[in-house]
């Protein structure tokens, strides 16, 4: 790419509350900002204002479709501030020669911390115990029900990438026995590998979902998996909601087929099955595993570094492979 004396035009789309990218981009580039609360639709805004945008930075999960891309004729790079890219039409980007980057390892520590926090909360029933005390029930009815031991649990991790590896490292400190299922066996990993999720579920007390959402992993946790996990088994999901067959999971939790769940993500966010609200063996969080100031600063720096690298013909920090 030939260098221009004028900084490239970068389009930033974000929710109105997530302004953490604004200043860092406007210092370096000519930046157009549109947010999800705008009264003007993107198909209307883009042709009139963003036809010269060479980069598109997305904070959130805006679906990037063929139609949307058709309004961005100058687009060369799509910068996602998420790790997952299931909201992007990868084939359309490839046809148009658009490069994609994601958040890389920016969120890995915080998501791993959240996964472990959810597991401890479910097994030791911490949120339910908190509600019990606040309602005055300790004084009225005495001791709360027993929780379950975390230490020594057999934990199966689905997706041993950066986040999955960080979860494993943390749980090793609890004396947990770690195994995993992934697209392929990691030769450098010390953990036992199961080539299919059914075997992983059958041989573990806990499943932690850290994998990407693809056609192959959609509803990877179905009723058969939960039945094999068993009545004391726990599912933790910090990946994507559609990794689990949510309707079947609700039935399994209500009927005691599995013992509990810790969920940061859901199939149709922000909608959450109402049946889960009254279950003390379920811990819910609003897709906020990544939501710390440290994570947001990390992803802003990675996004900026990717943009600078792209416009100066240097290797990208966190490219997404489209092949």
Walk me through this protein's architecture.
The strands form two sheets. This protein has a seven-stranded parallel sheet. Strands 2-1-3-4-5 form a five-stranded parallel sheet. The protein has helices at 22-26, 42-49, 66-70, 90-96, 108-124, 126-134, 137-141, 162-172, 197-202, 223-229, 246-255, 293-311, and strands at 9-14, 30-35, 55-58, 77-80, 99-101, 154-158, 177-181, 192-193, 206-209, 234-237, 260-263, 282-284. Helix 5 crosses helix 8. It is an alpha/beta fold and 323 residues long. The protein contains twelve helices and twelve strands. The two termini are 23 Å apart. The chain is globular.
Strand order in the largest sheet: 8-7-6-9-10-11-12
Spell the H/E element sequence. EHEHEHEHEHHHEHEEHEHEHEEH
Helix content: 25-40%
Helical stretch count? 12
Largest sheet: 7 strands, parallel
How does the overall form come out from the CA principal axes?
globular
Radius of gyration: 22 Å
Strand content: 15-25%
Number of strands: 12
Task: Provide the residue-averaged pLDDT.
Answer: 95
Structural class: alpha/beta
Runs with pLDDT <50, length 5+?
A: none
In short:
The protein is an alpha/beta fold and 323 residues long.
Descriptive terms for the model:
about 325 residues; alpha/beta; globular
Task: Please give the structural blueprint.
Blueprint: E1 9-14, H1 22-26, E2 30-35, H2 42-49, E3 55-58, H3 66-70, E4 77-80, H4 90-96, E5 99-101, H5 108-124, H6 126-134, H7 137-141, E6 154-158, H8 162-172, E7 177-181, E8 192-193, H9 197-202, E9 206-209, H10 223-229, E10 234-237, H11 246-255, E11 260-263, E12 282-284, H12 293-311
Parallel strand pairs: 1-2, 1-3, 3-4, 4-5, 6-7, 6-9, 7-8, 9-10, 10-11, 11-12
Helix pairs in contact: 5-8
